[in-house]
Amino acid sequence: MIANKYRQDTEPAFVLHAYPYLETSLVVETFTRNFGRIPMIAKGAKRPRSALRGLLLAFQPLHLSWAGKSELRTLHKVEWQGGQPSLQGMALICGFYLNELLVRLLRREDPHEQLFEYYQETLIALSSQQDYTPILRHFEQRMLKELGYALTLSYDVTTNKPLNAQEKYCYEIERGPKILGAGDCSRGLQLSGRTLLDMETGDYSDSITRQQSKALMRYILNHYLGDQPLHTRQLLKDLQQL
Amino acid sequence: MRAPASLEDLIESLRCLPGVGPRSAQRMAYHLLQRDHIGAHQLVKALDHALEHIKHCEKCNNFTEKAICELCCSQRRNAELLCVVEMPADLLMMEQANCYKGLYFVLMGKLSPLDGIGPKEIHLDRLLRRAKDGIVQEVVLATNFTMEGEATAHYISELLHTQEIKVTRIARGLPVGGELEHVDSGTLAQAVLERRVI
Fold first, then answer.
1. Which chain B residue shows the shortest CA-CA distance from A84?
2. Is B158's CB within 8 Å of A99's CB?
3. What is the residue extent of each domain of chain A?
4. How close A68 comes to chain B (CA, Å)?
């Protein structure tokens, strides 16, 4: 039916970011399960008694209904799904980091159902676990894979041989690791085979792995993010320095 | 026909106000010029005076005409309590509720990571200096219960914990006189999660 083409009902979604629009409305950046990242206008959401106020919260699973043909859709209805404790403290700042990554790297209206599932799992992990490093690294890797920039973490891209934990490798963006040997690593990032293999299996118990995987992800993400730095990364850094 | 340059200037200038688009700005400009010359003169004078004389209080960061505002100078307030709020409007609301006798610090904003507003932009270094005056015993965080307000509260609490200052957060839950039937699901869910022993 043509009438339904521009209308979507009860679509699972998360709010990524919201900013004020005119006197009483909000523009909400949403991440929907089947339609990707869609900006919507929530009319009257800033009014003191608006029912949307307690519902349009980031990090909470919602069902959204919207309509419209233009880039900015009109939000009609928000239903609370719940079942997920809200993020607090450091987990909340990590959540902002995920959202900033998605707002910056996801193109509008580009559906990523799998990434949506990962995002939801990651939020649950953040609200229930104390060690945030593996959770963030895991999400970054899966996100890059979903966006078509999957990392190569198991074999040397020049020789096609499996990586050796004892060797040093040079990781080049959009190519992968190659054995360092006597060559220089000016066009990539130098790290140990152990780090790459640990990242492949998701084992972040080693402190060098934690350090080097963070540097690698930062190196790769910076490439895709362009010149503008991530604000939440700065905030996390500031917090750690306190 | 084009409006005279000075009229266009006026309309353009009025658009700097929040929520004022081109049409409202035009309506305001015509009103001031057609019907209310005295009002317009008063507006100019008041704006000019305010711009020249109003600054931030050295202690609480709120707007004041003096170096230190009246509230901060008052002998009746409990100087051991310091309440952190986001905006001057929040301070007024706290005063109206008549529930708090301590002093304030107004952030004039909140941490908003996705908009690039960090600790430097909301002068948290000034808050830290203020809280370390040796008299303040407890800092009450009354930032909003939005995600950004929560992030701000977390950051301030981490900042002050390193200084061994007691930090508290105002409670949240059902509104006074609220009925479960009519309250939104988010509030109810959080209230159940944060239930307390009585």
1. B189
2. no
3. 7-80, 90-148, 168-225
4. 23
pLDDT for A2: 47
Most confident of A112-116, B111-115, B171-175: A112-116
Q: Which residues of B touch A89 (CB under 8 A)?
A: 154
Do the beta carbons of residue B143 and residue B157 sit within 8 Å?
Answer: no
Give me the mean pLDDT over the B49-64 stretch.
Answer: 94
A49, A53, A230, A231, best to mutate vs chain B, most B CBs in 10 Å = A231
Predicted model pTM:
0.88
pLDDT-derived band at B44, boundaries 50, 70, 90:
very high
Q: Which residues of chain A have pLDDT under 50?
A: 1-2
Which residues have a Cβ under 8 Å from the Cβ of A89 and sit 6 or more positions away?
B154
Whole-angstrom distance, CA of residue B132 vs CA of residue B81: 12
Dihedral angle over CA of B69, B108, B194, A52, nearest 10: 130
Handedness of CA A4, A9, A15, A19 (dihedral sign): positive
Q: How far off is chain A from B113, nearest CA to CA, in Å? A: 5
Query: Which tokens in the block code for residue B171?
Result: 């409670």
From B115, which residue of chain A is nearest by alpha-carbon distance?
Answer: A231
CATH number of A7-80: 2.40.50.140
Which domains are present in chain B? Answer: 5-53 (1.10.8.420), 77-169 (3.40.1360.10)
Alpha carbon of A185: minimum distance to chain B alpha carbons (Å): 33
What's the complex ipTM?
0.85
Topology classification of domain A90-148: de novo design (two linked rop proteins) (1.20.1440)
Residues in chain B with CB shorter than 8 Å from the CB of A43 are none
Q: How many cross-chain Cβ pairs, A to B, lie less than 8 Å apart?
A: 75
Which of the pair, B74 or B185, is modelled with greater confidence?
A: B74
Give Cα separations from A232 to A9, B49, B113, B118 (angstroms).
33, 39, 5, 9
Closest partner residue to B185 (CB to CB) among A55, A59, A89 is A55
